[in-house]
Amino acid sequence: MEAILAVTIPFFALVLLGWFAARAYWLPESAIPGLNAYVLYFALPCMLFRFGSSLPLGRLADPVLLAIYLVAALAIIALTIAVTVRRAGRDDGVALRDAAFGALVAAFPNAGFMGVPLLVALLGDAAAGPVIGAILVDLVVTSTICIAVAQSHSHRSRANDERSMLTAAALSLRGALTNPLPWAIALGAVFAATSRELPGPLAQIVRMLGDSAAPVALFTIGTVLWRAGQHAHTRTPVAQYLPVALIKLFVHPALVFAIGLAVRALGAPLSPFGLMVLTLTAALPSASNVSLLAERYGGDNGRIARIIMASTVLAFVTFSAIAWLFGVGKTD
Length: 332
Hints:
Blueprint: H1 2-23, H2 32-54, H3 57-60, H4 63-84, H5 96-107, H6 111-123, H7 128-158, H8 164-177, H9 180-194, H10 200-230, H11 238-265, H12 272-282, H13 290-296, H14 301-325
């Protein structure tokens, strides 16, 4: 456990420092979008490009790992919506739009800003492949489905259009494809497949930007969490956000691990290391940018911000415990 905490404490401490810096107004709120843009459009794409260009394609897009993670994500989306959506004749629960965004934070870990650097620090560069595969699934599939469900609800309230779900899905997918992260991964994979290398000065620029990704991304998570709390428009009862955070931290990784064991029992080529990395990816806290999506699409961003905050605070203990159960950091 000491070896795990030696890694996780600094990572979560940087998130806390970002939150405190924003709360103390040492970092102006107006600077937070710029900080987020630096990570999203410069630092993180360079880091993912470097990993993508150094790993074989089979490690970046292992079909067995992708299938396990996708099935688990779909199950978590369905489960979260089922247990949180408001039903006729009952006062508890939330509207379908908010249930869909709750499902998104339950199924979408912070694998980009936190997962890649954290798991590489814990397990070595080999961990990057499964995490990057999970990022692709979440950016292209998980977010598209959840936003489509949220948007289709609003479409149906205006007109009974059978194509509203497909329309919303197409708009969501277009948004996912404008995200620079999948393109950085794909470009890295092309360089790896063709054995190409960047020219020296450009490679140095990419290296410098990539090296800044982990600390700046973690600091940015803290600032985004503070900003989300400041812009929350509602006060959410604990019963409406804590269960979703617990689904994220406990049910999601447990489901990934269980599906992985079942797939391996059926004879699929699945390494214990790959399953461990994928389970630890699912055990990460919710992605912080979902609160921005909820705000953009008219969801209850106060509830989403509290789910993300609760999962981030609790993940320091839960993630470290799951890593310890896997034997991370133990020596024979």
